[in-house]
Write a structure and sequence with these properties.
5% of the residues lie in helices and 42% in strands. It is mainly beta and 180 residues long. The strands form five sheets. Strands 3-6-12-9 form a four-stranded antiparallel sheet, with no helix packed on it. A hairpin with a 5-residue loop joins strand 15 and strand 16. 27% of the residues are buried.
């Protein structure tokens, strides 16, 4: 949650806004690999036949009807042969490769009905790899508030590291860090 002057400005609806390989599973390990690299999570095709659809998945998302903004950053992309969408929730929030501009995806969508539990999918070109450094999903109003402040990304990592928990900041937000 992003706060200013005691007011919540925006909430990233994704549970893993900085993708890590440990948070995802692959649809078929003979089609792709995922690994952590210095600038994000690398999703690499294993030169599968063109009918394969290499996907890293993170389960468990539901969304109510509403208007949303997906923001993703890809510091590296090798290859151009994408199977279909590049990331998102198949059938609901599905930006295609033409959504990428200078390594950034900004995609608006309106869900007319609630989205049932659907995995977040991160993909890669069939003929290469992609590195995903940040992914955010926000309500349209939260995204507009962020843009008004000149903010395109936040991860919550501005809190100091502590050995005990919870850490409560002056805005009464709770942040818990560490391995449990």
């Amino acid at each position: 949650t992003l706060s200013q002057d005691g007011k919540v400005i925006a909430t990233n609806l994704l549970l893993s806004p900085k993708p890590r390989a440990a948070d995802y599973y692959v649809n078929n390990s003979s089609w792709l690999t995922i690994s952590d690299v210095a600038n994000g999570m690398k999703v690499a095709s294993l030169n599968s036949p063109s009918y394969r659809n290499p996907t890293a998945n993170k389960s468990g998302y539901t969304l109510p009807a509403g208007t949303y903004h997906l923001h993703a950053e890809l510091p590296e992309i090798s290859g151009t042969d994408w199977m279909d969408m590049i990331c998102g929730f198949w059938g609901y929030i599905a930006p295609y490769p033409n959504s990428i501009s200078d390594g950034v995806v900004d995609y608006d969508v309106t869900l007319n009905a609630a989205m049932p539990s659907t995995p977040l999918q991160i993909k890669t070109p069939l003929d290469g790899y992609s590195v995903w450094s940040h992914i955010g999903l926000y309500t349209a109003s939260d995204w507009a508030a962020m843009q008004a402040l000149g903010i395109t990304w936040f991860s919550g990592d501005s809190f100091p590291l502590v050995d005990s928990f919870p850490l409560v900041d002056s805005y009464a937000n709770v942040s818990i860090r560490g391995a449990f």
